Amino acid sequence: MSMDPSLKQNEIFLHPGEFYFGDNKKSIGTILGSCIAICIWHPRLHIGGMCHFVLPDRRVPFNSDQIGRYAGGCMQLFLAHTKSRGTGIKEYVAKIFGGANMVAELVKNNGNSVGERNAQAAMQLLIEQGVDINVADVGESGYRRITFNLSNGDVWVKQHAKNLHIKEKPALVEGITI
Q: Is the dihedral of CA 6, 30, 147, 168 positive or negative?
């Protein structure tokens, strides 16, 4: 099965620290290494969003232009946007991607890489909010290119090795369809 080319035409591309929430006329894409993308989707209304956060937490308060760079800030954005649509976050399903170990030498003394800590933070925040996590495609090494289709909740993942010159085909990760 190949990815629908029209997804690329209507794609919102997220850079690190960015967030998008919208309806079924769009797809959302990003490229992830140790960062995390949380995708949430409302199966009845076909609305949802994606965040692309860089770090699990911030020790000091962040200002509004930094809110999407941290896991907790992204959850604040999700809560605000779901509420503005007259829905509760528990009505959505979540998928988590990224959290790769991009540089083995940078693993902390406790053995947890930034990617691992990011993945743990994403899962913890979703569990605390009572959101079902349908897919967690996290860890390993190399980067991922993902495209989230808001019309049906599918997420296409293209996993890459650390070598950016290797060509691979995107695939619908098993179990992602809601």
A: positive
Share the mean pLDDT of the chain: 84
**Inside any domain, residue 2:** no
Residue 1 lies in a domain: no
Is 64 contained in some domain? yes
Among 46-55, 85-94, 98-107, 164-173, the range scoring the smallest mean pLDDT is: 164-173
Average pLDDT over residues 38-46: 97
Whole domain around residue 50: which residue ranges?
Answer: 12-172
pTM of the model: 0.84
CB 96 within 8 A of CB 133: yes
Residues 20 and 14 sit within 8 Å (Cβ to Cβ):
yes
CB 111 within 8 A of CB 71: no
Q: Where residue 67 sits, what CATH number does that domain have? A: 3.30.1330.200
- Of residues 154, 156, 38, the one with CA closest to residue 89: 38
- Cβ atoms of 116 and 110 within 8 Å: the answer is no
Phi, psi of 115 (to 5 degrees): -60, -45
